[in-house]
Design goal:
By secondary structure, this protein is α/β, with parallel strands linked by helices. It has two domains: 10-159 and 460-508, Roll (Urease, subunit C, domain 1); 161-450, Alpha-Beta Barrel (TIM Barrel). Helices cover 35% and strands 18% of the residues. The chain has helices at 10-15, 17-22, 31-39, 104-109, 117-124, 178-182, 187-192, 197-206, 209-225, 241-257, 280-296, 314-326, 343-350, 363-371, 380-385, 394-400, 421-432, 436-443, 445-450, 478-481; strands spanning 57-66, 85-94, 97-103, 148-151, 156-159, 161-166, 228-234, 261-266, 302-303, 306-307, 330-335, 354-357, 375-378, 405-407, 468-471, 488-493, 496-500. The strands form two sheets. Strands 6, 7, 8, 9, 10, 11, 12, 13 and 14 form a nine-stranded parallel β-sheet that branches. Helix 9 (209-225) crosses helix 10, helix 11 (280-296) runs parallel beside helix 12 and helix 13 (343-350) runs parallel beside helix 14. The protein starts with 9 loop residues before the first helix and ends in a 9-residue tail after the last strand. The structure holds zinc ion (ZN). Zinc ion is lined by residues 165, 167, 334, 410.
């Protein structure tokens, strides 16, 4: 995949520190400071937890907002087209949260703009931002007491993207399987030959916790550069107690050392390991025991299974997921990715939070999911990468079943080695025939609910976490239209500016 901007490769970002230290003066404030970063040739001034001071008060002005705000729950069917567009909008970030997101006139009335009452109050309360205020280019002037007022130049501003289905933590890569794929060997046949998932299992079992943390950090840094601020992550490359719990501990560690929030899912039954060949029942008993340990240690929020022909049957999936639900875990299911086994029907029956893939599902199964409030997590990067002719029927899900649809990368070393939700947004337009508005809803608000974070992220609304992306375009359609490059201009996570990219006229062509 072509990426935008030749960024310093992992060398600079591996530790993060180098970039962070050199660009200390470049972070934390507005345009003027960004020029410092540009002058230094810095493509990305990004480091987990970038500006180190406590996040204060930031006011983004001259923004074209898509707030996704209002009401409760994921948006379903046609309601997904309402992204809450606000022309000439303002976002106020106070500490880690959104304090205001709406039209400039309302912000003015409420005292959030220069000279306004709320800014004076915040200044008096010591809510100053990361340093001296920038002189807003749009005549905003500085807020009192060093409050950052940032003129974003009419750019599109959205919630941080949420990736609700990834296989983040693993060792190794599988480019050696590309030749087999191109020769027409089916994905499930590579798995049967001991390749595919099982090859990553061998590498992940052999890797240390530190190695897995280091690799996943690099992945998360790349996701963050592309606008993703929250990810759901699955275990499933251990298939034994020790390695599965190791993967889940790595996720917990990741939440301590870098800014992207990782939501942990236990996917022990991702494949049947060789040592349990023809003893699937015994393997699932073992995995239920691991799920209980993961739950008891607070290492997992969801349980998941690969329900597929030749992997786990519907009956086996029902048994495993029911047991996990009794343990108090939320339920997800890899359903009908390749064959129409009845995974969607099972997701509806169990009241799963999500039904994932759902490419070959029956229409009846999809309808039942919609009726049961199960969110369909669609993964068009995977069907594209596997060269499949059939993609999930997003139009049926939204137009006829009235389902809530979310989109995810499925980031994994086999069927979709790609961190960019932006590329998935392009696939959603071209392969799933989704509109730009539906796509945005599917990678923000709906994705947040799919990851169990609908009450904290996924929208620009007072009280929600200040996860914000400033795009280098004023057009929502431009993102899926101009594919294969990175359109992110800035990213804020929990109120902290964590990404600044050097963008300019070339990005807005
Ligand atoms: Zn998956």
């Amino acid at each position: 995949m072509a990426e935008g901007g030749a960024m310093p490769e992992d060398g600079a970002r591996r530790e993060g520190m180098e970039v962070a230290q050199r660009s200390e003066g470049a972070r934390g404030a507005g345009m003027e400071r960004m020029e410092v970063a540009r002058g230094a040739g810095m493509e990305v001034a990004q480091r987990p937890g970038a500006d180190r001071g406590e996040p204060g008060l930031r006011v983004l002005v001259n923004a074209r907002l898509a707030t996704l705000a209002g009401g409760d729950g994921p948006r379903r069917g046609r309601a997904m087209r309402d992204v809450g567009l606000v022309e000439d909008g303002v976002v106020v970030i106070r500490g880690e949260s959104i304090a205001f997101a709406g039209p400039r006139a309302e912000a003015e009335r409420l005292g959030w703009l220069a000279g306004g009452r709320r800014l004076r109050d915040a200044a008096a309360a010591g809510m100053a931002g990361g340093g001296a205020a920038a002189d807003g280019e749009g005549g905003e002037g500085s807020g009192p007491g060093g409050i950052d007022i940032l003129d974003v130049g009419g750019r599109l501003v959205t919630p941080g993207l949420v990736d609700p289905h990834t296989h983040l933590v693993h060792a190794g890569s599988r480019e050696d399987e590309l030749a087999q794929k191109l020769a027409g060997v089916p994905y499930l046949q590579i798995l049967r030959r001991g390749g595919g998932i099982l090859s990553t299992v061998r590498a992940t079992r052999a890797a240390s916790e530190e190695e897995l943390v280091a690799k996943a950090r690099r992945t998360l840094a790349r996701m963050l550069e592309h606008g993703t601020t929250t990810v759901e992550a699955k275990s499933g490359y251990g298939l034994d107690a020790e390695t599965e719990l190791k993967q889940l501990r790595v996720m917990r560690r990741l939440n301590e050392v870098q800014p992207v929030e990782v939501v942990p899912t236990f996917l022990g039954p991702h494949a049947v390991p060789p040592e349990y060949r023809d003893r699937t029942g015994a393997f699932l008993d073992e995995m239920v025991a691991v799920a209980a340990r993961a739950r008891a240690e607070g290492l997992a929020e969801f349980a998941d299974i690969f329900c597929e022909a030749g992997v786990f049957s519907v009956e086996e999936s029902r048994r495993f997921l029911s047991a996990c639900r009794r343990l108090g875990l939320g339920v997800k299911i890899h359903a009908d990715e390749i064959h129409p086994l009845g995974g969607a029907e099972l997701a509806a029956e169990l009241g799963a939070v999500t039904v994932d893939h759902a490419v070959a599902s029956t229409r009846d199964g999809l309808r039942r999911c919609a009726d049961a409030g199960v969110i369909a997590v669609l993964l068009p990067g995977t069907t594209w990468n596997l060269g499949h002719a059939r993609h999930a029927d997003a139009r049926f899900l939204m137009d006829e079943a009235g389902a809530a649809v979310a989109l995810a990368t499925d980031y994994n070393p086999g069927s979709c080695p790609c961190e960019s939700l932006q590329l998935v947004m392009a696939f959603a337009a071209n392969l799933l025939r989704m509109t730009p508005e539906e796509i945005l809803c599917a990678v923000t608000r709906n994705a947040a609910y799919a990851a169990g974070r609908g009450r904290t992220v996924g929208r620009l609304e007072p009280g929600w976490q200040a996860d914000v992306v400033v795009w280098d375009t004023d057009s929502l359609a431009y993102i899926p239209y101009h594919f294969g490059v990175n359109h992110v201009h800035m990213v804020f996570k929990r109120g902290r500016q964590v990404v600044i990219r050097r963008t300019g006229e070339e990005g807005r062509a």
